Amino acid sequence: MYDINQKTIFVLDHTQYFSISSEDYVPLDFLKGKSNNPSDPPLPASSQQNLQFSKSLWTSSVESSIEYCRIVWDLFPRGKLIRFIVSDTAAHIVNTWKFATQNMSHVLNAMALVGVPQWNAPQSSDYSVIHGLRAAIEALAEPTEQQLILMQNQEAGATGLEKIPNKGRVICITSARDNPSMKSLEDIFHNVLLQQNTVAMAQKKILPIDHCHLVIINMVPMNKETLVTNRAKKDLSPCLSTEIHTTSAPEISNKLTHLIMSHYDLASTTVTGIPMKEEQNANSSANYDVEILHARNAHTAICGNEALLPTSIKEGAEYETVTLKWCTPRGCGASDMSACPPCLAQHRVTPVDVTSRPSSCLINFLLNGRSVLLEMPRKTGGKTTSHLLSARGGEIFIHALQITRSCLEDPPSISEGPGGRITDYRIADFAAFIKAHRLVPLKSKVKPEDNLHIARERLYNRSLYFPLTLSTTIVFNLQRSLAWLPNFLRKIAKEDMDKTDEIQCQQNIYDLYTASTRRELLPFSNLNANRIKGHKKVDQYKLFCAELEVIIKSCASTPYHKKILENIQNVRAACGDATVKSELDATSDPSGKTIIRATTDSPLSPPHSMDTSSSGTGHISKATKRNFSNVGQRSLFDIVSSAERSQCSKRTDFSGRLCTPLGQVAKLYPDFGLKDADGSATTATPVKEETLGIKLEVPGIRT
């Protein structure tokens, strides 16, 4: 009773404008035959061909608003109250908050007495919808039967409520010229609302309005343009929010059906494939569809959200409907229901088109003591029974059934999985992951909400890629065999990575590249890694680099992360991964944008399955675009050259190069033959001077 939909008031414009035609003509078939009155002249041929009629704007607004009431009262027999106010020269109250007037018969009889507006009535400024809006605010301040009980208990001191909640919604169906006219209606409504709250503070018999939701529907004839534009919900003040919708007269019923789903948190389900016998030929049957409305929880109770349910948009509608297929009907007895899965939730249902023949047949079928199972297709193939339709006590309910393992069964073993028994779950890694993200009390001036937001964001980023088993990962299989890998993963996970961390990671990447060029086997130690060992050496390094790329992408938050990611992609390209080569070639695009393929597929898939065009993998995410034009790009040659220079700087240079002037060639054995020249200068034989080019081979350097 504290929701804003506890009170709903329809304000219907009964001015002269609503007596005009909606321009939605309904053709009539002329039946040939004799009239009951022989004196009646026959209709001319021209009249027989053009026999048609159209509803007025007033009739369209009354029918759609009453259909709104029917849906609400079918789904919520008590607690959701609706009132009608007709506005012309004054406000005419159709019903009250008393339960005796909250029914279709009372409202229809009152509307029949009101009648269609007179189009030939004299023009007067007294005709206005403002009278009805004023009366609607006064009606919102009136207490309902439940609020009266709370007020009496409050006076007696028997209730713990300091203030009785009072919220409501006003739906005004009118027609305005332009947006300034709509703005004027909103301002008048807002001022009257503030005045009413001031009056309510001084009186005990009425309640102040905590919040009011004003929905203005601007209705025009068919194919007529309007200057009023749609506007989403907007808060004008703490006690008033408004929204504006423009629709033609034939579409107002669909508009209100769309609005009622958000007003009362409803969802739509279309039951397809209902076999029904043809009305004209009883020997043949056809399949029909029936759309029903119910509480949204009937969908969300199964999977937590509606994302996994098959949805579609019906022609002419603005909302989605979940499509479920008719299954074999059964009875409603205990023996018939014993085979059904456990029920998670049940809610009343009502058809959208209550007057159609398929809806009538489905309702009568269920009210006669039968129940129907509804199937939904699985994305992995096949179907599963997800809902049940049945009737009890003259009311039809939809039941949300358990489609996963029931909580009533024995708990599953940790080694059980969809592919049989699995014994290589990463239980220790998962426990360490939980310990690393524990929350502890912190005495700080920072707001707790900020810390909680940071913790959630960190947990989200680090859990984007977490293989459940060791047989579906390479990186976490090798972190005990490769000495540098655990430290590399810790550095990558740091949110404040600095230049030192980047240099260490670059050295690790260089070691990986060196091992790949030497065709060294990756040191797998897990016995469950037989599938990994079956790949070629080059493919193993491709998959290893691909998984490292996924991990780095989930942590990439600094320019250092981006540099490391680029170097990993260079190593993948050097290993012959064609997909990465095409991505690296895309960096020459003049726009400076690079498209990097992000995949969460298992790295143990064959190399061709890494392509985003493959349809065989179910874990490939959408490609993400990143622009690294502001980060200095380093090629593989730059990485190798910098590593060689850093190694050479630690060694003493060749003495011949140090002593020889720049541009000259160093002499080999310059003192050779000098001792013989000192012993016998006369017999000295001139030595031919030879200059030899020095070819120095230092590891990593060639001169």
UniProtKB/TrEMBL annotation:
Pfam families to which the protein is assigned, alphabetical: Mat89Bb
Keywords: Cell cycle, Cell division, Coiled coil, Cytoplasm, Developmental protein, Differentiation, Meiosis, Mitosis, Nucleus, Spermatogenesis
Keyword Cell cycle part of the UniProt annotation: yes
GO cellular component: integrator complex; perinuclear region of cytoplasm
Tree of life domain: Eukaryota
Location in or out of the cell: Cytoplasm, Perinuclear region; Nucleus
Biological process, per Gene Ontology: cell differentiation; cell division; centrosome localization; meiotic cell cycle; regulation of mitotic cell cycle; spermatogenesis
Annotated segments matching region Disordered: 583-625
InterPro entries: Cell_cycle_regulator_Mat89Bb
Oligomer status and interactors: Belongs to the multiprotein complex Integrator, at least composed of IntS1, IntS2, IntS3, IntS4, omd/IntS5, IntS6, defl/IntS7, IntS8, IntS9, IntS10, IntS11, IntS12, asun/IntS13, IntS14 and IntS15. The core complex associates with protein phosphatase 2A subunits mts/PP2A and Pp2A-29B, to form the Integrator-PP2A (INTAC) complex.
Sequence similarity: Belongs to the Integrator subunit 13 family.
Name of the protein this chain belongs to: Protein asunder
Provenance organism: Musca domestica (House fly)
